[in-house]
Amino acid sequence: MTSKCELVKKVDHRSALERDAGRLVNCRERVNFCPLGACALAGTGLPIDSIDAVSDRDFVLEFLAANSIAAVHLSRIGEEWVLWASEEFGFLTPSDSVSTGSSIMPQKKNPDPMELVRGKSARVVGDLMTVLVLCKGLPQAYNRDLQEDKEPLFDSVKAILGMLEGVPFRTSHEIVGRSVALCTTKNCQLGELKLDDLKAVHPVFESDVYEYLGVENAVNKFISYGSTGSEQVKEQLEDWRIQLGISS
């Protein structure tokens, strides 16, 4: 008797990643439909189930589920790198391109990119949980709750791409140095460089880089309590005004 189950002959990480790719391909076959014409509820003469079209978020959930499984696989790979690079195991020594130095132990190589991959997986799984809970208990047809599906969807994609295409710290440091050197040549600030100039330094740059360039943008990225970001400074000033009895 021949079994209907195909014997699993491959047990490496490549096999898991191959299944991840297959899930995304299969996902596209099911979600590649356009609900255009469904209107807000049932305002169309087209022969479609418009109520389901506007209330369904299966396409988001299925995609996020495929992303989450891939993230878990990438996290497991990251964990093995971190474990094997430890002093206790010593199975591998990460190259400079995928490690960073220690601030207190110069001889140490930290597999930081893999630790970040491991950490990002929690974010991707969290995005899936967000939309699952969002859709739980919603009645049929469109509900305004569903507008909250965009942020976790986009966040999941950004996180997965970052896990697959992340730039090591050492490389980032080099990129910044080359960008600054270019600014010196052109006698300009980083924020004044054109995107083509930045891409010539490294293709990792995208248009959103301008949200980070410049003194004001850099300072305002500090959002932790008591930090130097403008909003935090305003809160601290207001707090002291209240404590000192000074009217604003």
UniProtKB/TrEMBL annotation:
Domain Argininosuccinate lyase C-terminal: 165-220
Reaction(s) this enzyme catalyzes, per UniProt: 2-(N(omega)-L-arginino)succinate = fumarate + L-arginine
Pathway: Amino-acid biosynthesis; L-arginine biosynthesis; L-arginine from L-ornithine and carbamoyl phosphate: step 3/3
Protein name: argininosuccinate lyase
GO cellular component: cytosol
Gene that this polypeptide is encoded by: gb19615
Keywords: Amino-acid biosynthesis, Arginine biosynthesis, Lyase
Similarity comment text for this entry: Belongs to the lyase 1 family. Argininosuccinate lyase subfamily.
Any one Gene Ontology molecular-function term assigned to this protein's record: argininosuccinate lyase activity
PANTHER family, A to Z: ARGININOSUCCINATE LYASE (PTHR43814:SF1)
EC number annotated for this UniProt entry: 4.3.2.1
Species assigned in the record: Eleusine coracana subsp. coracana
Keyword Manganese: no
Database matches in InterPro entries: Arg_succ_lyase_C, Argininosuccinate_lyase, Fumarase/histidase_N, Fumarate_lyase_CS, Fumarate_lyase_fam, Fumarate_lyase_N, L-Aspartase-like
Taxon lineage: Eukaryota, Viridiplantae, Streptophyta, Embryophyta, Tracheophyta
A Pfam family of this chain: Lyase_1
Fumarate lyase N-terminal domain sequence ranges: 49-126
Gene Ontology process terms (BP): L-arginine biosynthetic process via ornithine
